[in-house]
Amino acid sequence: DESNINPFFLSMLGSITRACAQRGYDLLISFQQLSRDWHADYEDCHKADGLILLGYGDYLDYRGRLEALVAQDTHFVRWGAVLADQPGLSIGGDNDAGGLAATRHLLAQGRRRIGFLGHASLHAPEFLERHQGYAAALREAGLTPDPLLQADAISTEAAGCEAANLVLERGARCDALFAASDLIAIGAMRALFARGLRVPEDVAVVGYDDIPMAQSTHPALTTVQQDTRHAGELLVDTLLRMVQGEAVQSIKLPPRLMVRQSCGAVLQPARTPATVTPLPDGARRARRHAR
């Protein structure tokens, strides 16, 4: 829809809602236009004890608003990269570890020409950290990241499709794509299919986030999962402790690689033998009569 809300945040919002209810708090949800001085509006309205911030667009533009919240002594915590010099506290995933795990997995499948789709700059710190993990895995394998295999993209399917097309149009050989989000990965798969390329036979694809849609793509998308349930609980608990004057700190959550079909490593679930319990003789006779 026109809001462009990443479905990843919708999953986290459900967890935040449950956590607030379990702790006896009401949750007020507000969709903020980044062009407005919403931090000043919050300070003036006195509607809530604190803020949980999800999503931020360009971090370098957003940072000034975070600094204003700190200057106002606002209780707030955000979901995002844990940075050394950040204003305020954040709960976020270990993006370096996630990028490292995803790229190591692609390398283990024999892929050597691995592209990265997503902004690799301070404008998008989470994507930058995922790119750092990706580059570290390549160097670990004796490979050098190829700039021709990297294309900027925000977290939308359209941007992923455009970024994948850009990489392919450069003519550099590419046998795998690691996308900085699932939406980017799904858009990239659409671009590959439009060019007659097969996933994963011609180009393997790995995403990031494990949004619900990742299991419904064809082939199902291998991705790096971020635990939205645990994240939501930590966001709420950290904010409430802050409101109560307790000491709190930023937290990094470990990622988990979810291996599905799009990377080329198809896992066949082990079959559990069915347990057959013989019916008593009387029950067998009753069944025969019933027929």
From TrEMBL:
GO molecular function, one term: DNA-binding transcription factor activity
Pfam family, one: Peripla_BP_3
Alphabetical keyword list: DNA-binding, Transcription, Transcription regulation
Region of interest (Disordered), residue spans: 271-291
Domain Transcriptional regulator LacI/GalR-like sensor: 104-263
Residue ranges of coiled coil: none
Organism per entry: mine drainage metagenome
InterPro entries per record: LacI/GalR-like_sensor, Peripla_BP_I
This protein's name: LacI family transcription regulator
